[in-house]
């Protein structure tokens, strides 16, 4: 600003001199002085323009830095929100995983207890089990326990009836009246209990397919379906939550 004030004062002095030169006829001096005045005025305008340009540039840089800080702040808030959301989802997943794991382990425990129990007689409300049916069923249980006939995938009720020297229909009725199950479900229960005990022992002798064959199933899918139905777990789930 000091430069600008001095230049203006000098131009005022030049204006006075120019009037004197014009009055005395010193045309060349007048012309030279006029050029100096114009040059100085241009310099003043140029300095003012540069000052304003610098001010605009400074303001632009300040606004740019402020905007960048605001963007960084917004990015941080978004990242923090995402992190908190992810942490919440992870915590919920861990809680759900632990809950499911505990539920699976409880099913394993109950299945192990169930596998160690002998098939209980069922007493229907409508009609008590007759002594004949009870005796026939107990003989069948002894045969299964002593000879593990249920492990034979080809065994059927006709062969069992023949081996026990009883009528096939009587044997089927005895199983149904004493257990509330048909013969297929009854024999599969023995097989699944055997599979549960085998898996619980920690033995790795067989694959699950091999285990299915060992306990009396000739079809892997039938074994999986029966295991799931009776324990609430697939064989793999049972094995993974021991």
Q: Can you put this structure into words, describing what you see?
A:
With 242 residues, the protein is an all-alpha fold. It has 2 domains: 2-90; 117-240, Arc Repressor Mutant, subunit A (Orthogonal Bundle), CATH 1.10.10.60. Helices cover 80% and strands 0% of the residues. The chain contains 9 helices and no strands. The protein has helices spanning 2-24, 27-116, 131-147, 157-164, 168-179, 183-200, 208-214, 220-231, 235-240. The radius of gyration is 51 Å and the shape is rod-shaped. It starts with a helix and ends with a helix. The relative contact order is 0.07. The mean pLDDT is 84.
Indicate the topology.
Blueprint (H helix, E strand, L loop, with lengths): L1 H23 L2 H90 L14 H17 L9 H8 L3 H12 L3 H18 L7 H7 L5 H12 L3 H6 L2
Helix pairs in contact: 1-2, 2-6, 3-5
- The general outline is rod-shaped
Distance between the termini: 89 Å
Helix content: over 70%
Q: Which range does the strand content fall in?
A: under 5%
Tally of helical runs: 9
Helix-strand pattern: HHHHHHHHH
User: Which CATH-level-2 architecture of the largest domain?
Assistant: Orthogonal Bundle
Overall strand count: 0
| Count of discrete structural domains | 2
Rg from alpha-carbon coordinates: 51 Å
Q: According to CATH, what is the topology of the largest domain?
A: Arc Repressor Mutant, subunit A
Which residues sit in consecutive blocks of at least 5 with pLDDT less than 50?
none
Q: Mean of residue pLDDT?
A: 84
Q: What would you give as the CATH superfamily of the largest domain?
A: Homeodomain-like
**Structural class based on helices, strands and sheet pairing:** mainly alpha
For the sheet with most strands, the description reads: none
| CATH class category name of the largest domain | Mainly Alpha
